[in-house]
Amino acid sequence: MIGFMGFWIEKRVLVTGGAGFLGSFLVEKLKKRGCKNVFAPRSKDFDLVNNNACVKLYKETRPDIVIHLAAQVGGIGANLDNPGKFFYDNLMMGAQMIEQGRLHDIEKFVTIGTVCAYPKIVSIPFREEDLWNGYPEETNAPYGLAKKMLLVQGQAYRQQYGLNAIYILPANMYGPRDNFDLRNSHVIPALIRKCMSSPDEDITVWGSGNPTREFLYVDDAVEGILLASEKYNKPAPINLGTGAEISIRELLDLIIEITDSRRKIVWDKSKPDGQPRRSLDTSRAQKEFGFQARVPLREGLLKTVEWYKSFYK
Question: Which strands form 37-39's sheet, in the order they lie side by side?
């Protein structure tokens, strides 16, 4: 911990999206690491899609390091409903924040990318070298490609301007404080909410249940992001994950067991499955900065369900 405090204690750190699910945990852990100047602007005060807001934010916070978490995100349904918005907003927020970081000569820009940037069909586990070997899965391609362009921008700015920009590709994240709104939530909070709702209703789940996903507990994700911020200074993207995949059907069975749900399951196969499989090769993160996820899926789900019970009681 002394080493961590030594790195962060004098830094001014700007965390976009710092009031959100992942950001709230990251801000807390930054402070525990000794960072005294953490800035977590709210979207109602700084609309980062607007370049003037980005300029104002840099002027007011004068950061040394920017950790860019802010994003328009959601599950398959939200991506299908908002492909243009998800593309434009995510591209503009990231591109403008990186440009202003370059203009303000910051020490480091940390971009949080997305596993949605990977091709739809790619060998398992996903290696960082495979990122450009095909087009992303169609339902989330606009979002994935917008975030992928921030990798290109960071690498280009490193080459031309010397900006120390790194790009992190986390697996699907989950945990307490996640978004449980069924209109735009991801799969784990959506399934937890459905299992915890009225026992008289069926649980309708999109697709066949056969696709696999890899899930990263929020505390592990934050630890990986901070380790990368402290120790990783290379242009190549880097995966964060557990290296373990589980089918949506198996995931639902586990959530049903944890929540003690007795509701009937209906699989709506008219709805898309999304990407067939997702599992990350996490060896680069282990080698470069010693990251290894520590929270097993079952333990993380138990903590998430307990939080949901206490928050939505």
Answer: 37-39, 12-16, 65-68, 108-112, 165-170, 238-240
- Predicted confidence at residue 4, as pLDDT, reads 59
Question: Tokens 């602007």, residue?
Answer: 41
Confidence at residue 2, expressed as pLDDT on a 0 to 100 scale: 41
Domain covering 2-178+214-243+276-295 assigned CATH 3.90.870.30 in the classification: no
Which positions ≥6 away from 141 have C-beta within 8 Å?
Answer: 83, 116, 135
Can you tell me the distance from the alpha carbon of 227 to that of 220, in angstroms, rounded to the nearest whole number?
A: 11
**Catalytic, out of 118, 143, 174, 308:** 143
Listed by start position, the domains of the chain span 2-178+214-243+276-295
3-state SS class at 142? helix
Query: Is pLDDT above 60 for 255?
Result: yes
DSSP state at residue 198 = -
Concerning whether 143 is annotated as a catalytic residue, the answer is yes
Instruction: Classify residue 168 as left (phi > 0), alpha (psi -120 to 50) or beta.
Output: beta
* 51 exposure class (CB count in 10 Å sphere: 0-12, 13-18, 19+): middle
8 Å CB contact between 304 and 190: no
Q: DSSP for 77-126, please give it.
A: HHHHH-HHHHHHHHHHHHHHHHHHHHHTT-SEEEEE--GGGSBSS-PSSB
Are 291 and 224 a contacting pair, CB within 8 Å? yes
Interhelix angle for 248-259 vs 187-196, to 10°?
Answer: 40
| 166-170, 187-191, 293-297, 301-305: least confident range | 187-191
Higher pLDDT, 161 or 73: 161
Predicted structure pTM score: 0.95
CB under 8 Å to 153, separation ≥6 — which residues? 94, 95, 98, 165
**What's the DSSP call for residue 207?**
S
